[in-house]
Backbone:
């Protein structure tokens, strides 16, 4: 198994170069086809009182700004991917739904992996778009910390395992990375608090399954002793200098603030490693 079609979310000119660089690195590693996608969102249009009709001047300004961004994003992607032997294409969409539009989702559901950037607090927040992808695409998403500018080999992987459906989905969605890694650790936090798990056997079955795939896997359990699971995972990432965190995306709310409640949200707000999410 390998990722053969990768979608790079080019949501802003600020992160288009970073996302394209990582997309190229993965496309070369897996001999994959790379699709750059930018969705131009039609903004709300100011109205002229008292008749409440659209202001033509405002409409034109909004369209010009959005089109300028699209042109810049496409330029960055095409310039960086203009190399021999790399299979790429760039797609742009225009709609009021942005990345949640039917056209974008149709593209997203037909890929092996979605690549996106963590929201940079210095720029506009695009995390709601990532929420849409995670909920509706049915595909795994690899998030890149906005501070990580240069692709690095993924040698050490940490799986945040709690025996949930989401964790299982993320683990098997990450199989190409796991097989290519030097080491993979299944990390269980407070297993006694999880239904159906005990301290002695937590994570043992998934570790055994991964070992049958020829993966160099170890199993670790950790009691938080009053601290949060997110802190325990963050500490483990730092201790082992982990390159990739694999975990499930949890929650049922349509709003990001509630969707990534608890462990997932805390980890994504303070990302120190590449993070693969599945739901």
Residues:
């Amino acid at each position: 198994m390998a990722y053969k079609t990768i979608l790079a979310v080019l949501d802003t000119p600020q992160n288009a170069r970073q996302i394209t660089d990582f997309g190229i690195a993965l496309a070369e590693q897996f001999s994959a086809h790379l699709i750059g996608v930018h969705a131009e969102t039609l903004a709300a249009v100011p109205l002229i009182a008292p008749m409440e009709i659209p202001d033509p001047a405002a409409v034109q300004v909004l369209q010009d700004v959005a089109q300028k961004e699209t042109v810049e994003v496409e330029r960055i992607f095409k310039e960086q991917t203009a190399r021999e032997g790399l299979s790429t294409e760039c797609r742009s969409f225009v709609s009021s739904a942005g990345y949640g539009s039917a056209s974008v989702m149709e593209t997203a559901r037909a890929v092996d992996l979605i690549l996106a950037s963590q929201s940079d607090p210095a720029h506009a927040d695009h995390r709601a778009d990532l929420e849409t992808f995670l909920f509706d695409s049915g595909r795994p998403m690899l998030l890149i910390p906005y501070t990580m500018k240069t692709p690095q080999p993924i040698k050490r992987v940490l799986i945040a395992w709690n025996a949930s459906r989401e964790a299982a989905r993320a683990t098997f969605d990450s199989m190409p990375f796991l097989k290519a890694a030097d080491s993979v650790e299944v990390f269980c936090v407070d297993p006694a608090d999880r239904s159906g798990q005990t301290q002695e056997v937590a994570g043992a079955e998934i570790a055994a399954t991964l070992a049958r795939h020829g993966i160099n896997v170890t199993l670790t359990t950790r009691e938080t002793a009053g601290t949060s699971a997110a802190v325990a995972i963050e500490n483990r990432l730092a201790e082992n200098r982990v390159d990739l965190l694999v975990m499930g995306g949890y929650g049922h709310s349509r709003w990001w603030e509630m969707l990534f409640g608890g462990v997932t949200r805390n980890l994504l707000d303070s990302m120190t490693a590449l993070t693969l999410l599945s739901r």
